[in-house]
Amino acid sequence: MSAATSIHITALDGIVNVNSLFTLAVFIGLAWNPTDPNNSLIDPIQHSGCLPGPKIAENLVAFHVYSFSCFLFSSLVALGLKQATRLAHYTNRVVWTFDLAHVNKTALRVGYVVSATGSVLGSVFLMLALVNVAQIKLGVLGCSGGSGHVYGAVVPLVILVPTGLLIYVSTVFYAFTR
């Protein structure tokens, strides 16, 4: 196996593994019942204006489903690329062996970009779902009577996740141009 192909397969395995972890997070999020009154940390008497409406719970579920769809799409594309990189052929001894295939580098690059796009979109939707979780647990953003804890949860999320995605996209772009 050549070093370049080994690197490609390792990168594709990494995409699938990370997407699997995020997909697990999405399933855990979907299993949580956002309408359960015992799941909120908001005191309904003191902060009645901070209680989230049903639209936030609907968005939470929708963003989880969008995120799951994107991660699944990205993983399937990465697995397809991995399978295309390895090709089974028939030998004279009637044994199936796995050898490397000649893969169109342009198609491989496009596949990487498509898979990376699915991962980025899945991460964005997961971040939006987590913003809704924070609003359900701590109070809606912009609440006049809130304690500000929701901003303490959301601000690092909306700074760190896009920063990580920017680094990821930069790395994918760098690999795409080489």
UniProtKB/TrEMBL annotation:
Keywords recorded for this protein, A-Z: Membrane, Transmembrane, Transmembrane helix
Keyword Cell cycle: no
Coiled coil: none
Regions crossing the membrane: 12-32, 61-81, 110-131, 151-176
Name of the molecule in the record: Maternal effect embryo arrest 60
Organism, as annotated: Buddleja alternifolia
